[in-house]
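Running low. Any example?
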Amino acid sequence: MNKIFVILLLILFAFPVQAGRSRANKTSTSYTEDDTIAEIRFGRNLAARILGKYKIWDNDKANDYVSTVGTGLAASTGRTDIRFLFAVLDTPDINAYAIPGGYIMITRGALEIMENEAQLAGVLAHEIAHINQRHVVKKLKIRGESNAFLASIGTAAGGGAVSGMKILNKLLDQAVEILFESGIDEKLEINSDVESIQTLVAVGYDWKSYTEYLRKINKKIFKDQRKVNSKTHPPIEERIEKIDSAVDDYDLTGHEGRKHKDRFHEYVKTR
């Protein structure tokens, strides 16, 4: 059992859920501290279910690196009422997952077709955008109103009332179906792409690397038998078209940023 997996288990189960200090922005409007606690508790259970399906990649160097890049992005653009955690799943599937409460998981298969850190940052920023905007939370209507939802999740997680367990399992099943099968919504995916580009520019990465990565995924759809994220995302061509349009609107075409290719290969491509 590797170090990252042990740390995740400790965070998922050993520590009490506490919502952090929120700041006034569009993502926190109308959401209370109880809502955030409900999101974190739900995400903790969903993350545990995913870790029961996929192992963490036994590569501490790569996991630490992904966590460092992701934490840096989240510190700049992520919500402050939650703690973001990152891990690499040991599967050749090409995808990444934004789990409510700040848990972001990317697959080994996704890393294998990347060429530089800017591409990694683009994917992580896309997932951070999903969590910032509470896309899964809103779709499943996860709220802590009157502490009813909090009580049901807390009871279920502790092995208590049957009704609480049924509520939790139903929502977890729906969340897994969203993450692995149906996706959230094409418009929301494209919005997260655009927010990712804005984040890359804001922190100084090369935004073009992200669209290059999307094109590589598109080639894999036709040339490889590995499962890719096409089932849960809009067509790649449409995503790139929308990104190009946003780049023109925000006058980012000539922006040059860093790629950090050598650093990426040092931490990810070698063991």
Notes: The CA atoms of residues 22 and 80 lie 5 Å apart. Residues 22-26 have pLDDT under 50 and may be disordered. The two ends are 17 Å apart (CA to CA).
